[in-house]
Write a structure and sequence with these properties.
The strands form three sheets. A seven-stranded parallel sheet has the order 1-2-3-4-7-8-9. The longest helix has 21 residues. By secondary structure, it is an alpha/beta fold. 34% of the residues lie in helices and 18% in strands. The chain is built from ten helices and eleven strands. It has a single domain, classed as Metal-dependent hydrolases (TIM Barrel, Alpha-Beta Barrel), CATH 3.20.20.140. The chain binds zinc ion (2 copies).
Amino acid sequence: MREGPAGYGLSCLHTHTVFCDGSDEIETYCRGAWERGFHSLGFSAHGPVSGKTGFSSDWHLPEDRLEEYLDAVREARRRWEGKLRIYLGLELDFIPGLMGPADREYRDLGLDYLIGSVHYLIPPRSGPFTVDGSREELDRGLREGFGGDGEALVQCYWDQVAAMIRAGGFEILGHADLVKKNNRGPGGPFFDPAGSAYLRRAGEIAALAGEAASRRGMVVEVNTGGMNRGTLDETYPSPALLTMFRENRVGALVSADAHRERDLEGHYGEALALMRSAGYHSTVLFEGKEGGRPRWSERPLSEIRPQALSAGP
Ligand SMILES: [Zn+2]
Ligand SMILES: [Zn+2]
């Protein structure tokens, strides 16, 4: 394997291709990761939802293309053997009562890893909606589902993240505080991310994540997707939440949530600097699974691309 020196210790396990809502082909990403000297590259198409939920979606892998996707990534792994470690994954939605990464059938697909993500909220008073869609969709969901109560919306989000972590079945906790996507601005239009109610729930999530980390090797991603798309100026999770994950001994790795090849490594310098300021001394790299548990190797942050680290926030 030709790892680094430029890409020493870098990887992206959160990658969307033309099979779901990404704009580049598998091969384009492989070449990009190899040229950057990445340790590894993982593909994580949005797993199909329509069959289990009845939702229509234009951003998930269509149900009837799942096998084709799995085969295409396996073929890429064969083509790049000896040059780049390629892993086969899915990003799976946790939707209470309908589907989640712990569902049995995903274990039979021969996947290397799963990212567990909450995108959909199931409010008490209305139908499901996504927290990371348009501002208009969130406004409507907030009004119809929660009577305009932003704090209730956030509590619903954290409840679902907590339920997903408890249910397990995945290796990487995806964009832990995605609920903030449409909440930009001082104090936030929907909820206050510096408020005690928010931070208390975030602390509960971090503690649950700590249990999942020690019990089954779950890690959290430091996701630069919002920065890559220009919708946010910070990672998921926020600095405060990342510090809580570190206090609970949850391993962390940077990912681009790439929807195009040029996102690979996007804003990694800031994310690595953020990990350092949250008290992390090392990042983890995926090395496959053993006995059903993910194997993570550690790389000291001090050894990863000093030029990237110096480009801090
Ligand atoms: Zn996602
Ligand atoms: Zn994603």
